[in-house]
C-alpha cells in the first residue's frame, strides 16, 4: 500500500518544485524578485512620478508597477497592459535568406515556434496576484479597494506561493463599502430603500461556482453574464492577453457582489455575492469544502455526469445534502430540469451564453425566494470566514492585532453607554465645539473694533483668555488620553494599523445613523436643486432650504472621523500654549511632533476648520515647524483645489495622485486640508522642489440657506487660491457661472489685500463633459469664459482703484492652455458601472499640465509656506467687506448706494 502512495507523493513534490521554480522565474521577469519577503508599500507608489504609459510598455519588468499605477488611477484596463518591445517578439529569418514558403514542414515549424513565444507571456492575472503577494498589508488593502472600484472580483481565498497555506485576506476588504437599492412594497406602493454597508458586514446570499475536470466552456465568462454583461468582472480565457499557462490563480477563490439599482431591469432584486473557485475543484478540496459550506447555492460545471467516478461520487454526495445545487453539463443538451427540491440540472450543448444566463438567473431567483428557511440558505458575511479553522487570516498578524487592541479601547469607550453618534463630539471632543466657535467669533471681532478701541481690545483679549482656560480645564477626556498615548507609544507599523482600525470602527459606528440622514439629505437636496433650476424664488424654496439646513446640521453632528480627533489635538495644544498652563493629564507639547510625523507619512492635516470658519494659526505654525525639523526646510509646490459641492474633486485627486483625503462615512468634514506628496527621484531632474503640497477644500456653495455660506465660501476660496502656486478650479459640467461668482470675489479680495504679495495661477477643469474632443474645439466657449473673467476683473479694478485690465493681470491664466475637459466618471449606470477609462486619461492629461507648469516654478520653502499662511490669514481677518457678497456686481451696487467698505 505504501509503495502505491510513494509515487504520487514524489510526483506531487516534483510538481510543486517545478511550480515554485516557474513562479520564481515569473517574479524575476516582473522585477519583483525578493519582494515576497521585502514587501512593496504605498509609499513606493504614492509619489509624483513620470506619466504612466497609457497603451503599452516596452519591457516585462515594468508590468507590475504599471499595473498598480494604472489601477490607482482607476483605469480598469490596467489588467490588459500589452508588452511591445522595440524589437518584435516573433522574429523571422534574416531578410537575405531565401525561404521556400511552400515548404509545409517549415511552415508548421514556424507556427509551433510562434506558439512557444505566445505561451511565454505572463498571464495578466499572474501579474495581479504577483503584485498582491509582493505587497504589504496596506498596499494590498489599497489595491483591493481600487479593484473593487473598477468592478473587478476580489481574492477571497488565496494559496500562499511559498507555504501553500490558504490565506483569507479580510484586512483588504475593510475599506470597501457596497451601495445598492432595494424595492419594497409598503401600503400597496413601491418604495426604494438605499443601503450602504461596509462589505465585510454585508449579509447576503452567496452563490459559488466550481469546475470539475477540464472543460471547453469558460465558467468565469458565464458568471460575468450574471453580474454585469458589459464588463468582465472575472478574468476569463477570452480576455485580452490571456495565455494557456498561469501559475498563481489555481486554487484562488474570487468574490464579487451584484448590487441592484432599484430599477425594473435589475437581474436580482437584492445584493448577492458570487464566488468563483479557479482551477479544477477536484484538486482544491479545502477551498471547495469551505465555499460549499458557506454558500446558499452551489453551481457545478462538468463535462458530463458520467465522465468519471470521482465526479459522480462528489455530485451524488451533494445531491443527497439539503443545500440547493445546480449542475451545468457541458455535453448535455437538456433544458433546465428541477429533479427535486432545490436540485437542478441543465445542459449547455448548442446553447448560447445569453440563453444559459437568463435560465440561470431565473433558477437563482426561484431558489432564493423560496420559503425553505435560513438553514437551507444561510446568509453569508465576510467577517465570519475568519472563524474557520485551517486557514490563515491576515488580521492575526501581531502588529495588526496590537493596533486593533489599542483602537478597541477607544471604541469601547464610545460605545459604553450606547451613546448616539451625534453626541460623541460634544461628550469627548469638547475643545472644538462651542468653546472654539466662540473663540473664533471673538477673535474675528478683534480686527474690526469700534468705539473705545483700546478698552474693547482689552475686553475681548480677556474673553479669549477665559475661553482658553475653559478649554484647558475640559481637555483631559479619556478618549484623547488613550488616542495620544497610543499614537506616541506604538511603533510605526502598529501606529498605522491603529489609525486605520479607528477609522474602520468609527465608520461602522456611524454607518446606520448616517445612512438614513444621508438619504433624507439627498432627497431634500434634489428638491432644492429642482426649484433652483426653475428659477423658483417662492416661499417653498426658502422652506425647503431651511429643511435642508436642518438636515445638514444633523449630518454635521453625526459626522465623526479621525480628522475631528486631530482637530481636538490642535485645540488642546492652542489652549495650553496660550495660557502656558501645565497639565498632568495631557502631554500637549508633544502634539505638533505627533501630527508632523503623521503628515510626513501621508496623512492629511486640517488647515482651516470649516465648522468654525477659522485657521488655528498657533497649531498650524507649530506643526509645520516640526515638519521642518524632521525633513529640513524642503521646497514645496503648493497645489490648491477648489470646486463646488459634489463636483468630483475628491475623485479627481484620488485618480490623479492616489490621495485619500480624510473623509468620514457619508460626507467630508468642512474645511481645507493639506497633504504632502513626495517627488520621486526620477522626477527631481525635471522639478525644482521636493514635495507637492496639496490643499484640498470642502465643496463650495452647498445648497442650504446661501446667506450663511457666502462669507465662508468666499473667504475659503480666497485663502486657498492665495496659498497655491497653482489652483485647480473644478467645475462639474460645462457651466462655470457659480464658480465665476466666487472667482470675482477672490479677484477683488486680492486687489484689496495689496500688502500680501500674491502671485497665483489657475487651471479650469470641466468634469462630466460628454464629448471631450468637441469641447476642446469649442473656441466660442473659451472666448466667452475669457470675456466674462476679464469683465469682472475690470469691474473689480474700477471699484478698488487698481491697475488691472484683465483677469490674468491678477491671476495668471491662459484660456488656450489652461482650460481642460474631462470625460464622465462612470461607464454606464452605478452601482455596477466601472469607471470610464476616458476619465482616467483626461485626469492624467490634467496632471501632465500641472507638472509642466510646476517644472517652471522654483516652489517655496516650507517656512515660506508657513509665513504665507500667517500673512494671508491675518489679511483675510482684516478684510470682511467683499466676502459678504455673491459677486462683483453686488459689491458695485452696494457701493453706488453709498454703503462702502467702511473703515
TrEMBL record:
Keywords: Cytoplasm, GTP-binding, Nucleotide-binding, Nucleus. Residues 633-873 form the VLIG-type G domain. It is found in: Cytoplasm; Nucleus. One of its GO terms (molecular function) is GTP binding. PANTHER family: INTERFERON-INDUCED VERY LARGE GTPASE 1-RELATED, URG4-RELATED. Belongs to the TRAFAC class dynamin-like GTPase superfamily. Very large inducible GTPase (VLIG) family. This is VLIG-type G domain-containing protein. It comes from Astatotilapia calliptera (Eastern happy).
